[in-house]
Amino acid sequence: MLSHEVGYDFGISKHLSVGAALTFVMGFINAIDLTIKGQGSTHIDLDKNDIENISHLGLNIGLRYYL
Fold it and tell me: For the whole prediction, is pTM greater than 0.70?
């Protein structure tokens, strides 16, 4: 899994700022460990065409108040 985040806050006043952050997470599921109660467990390697992409790109915008 690969993860990166970059963000910045802009000061509006001594106690207040506004900011934004960009987050990127990249990952893939290429195998499954399956456990069935009372029957044991097994490991399943997925075929190349069945690999799942679980990547995410996010944008966060916020307002911060400092005491």
Answer: no
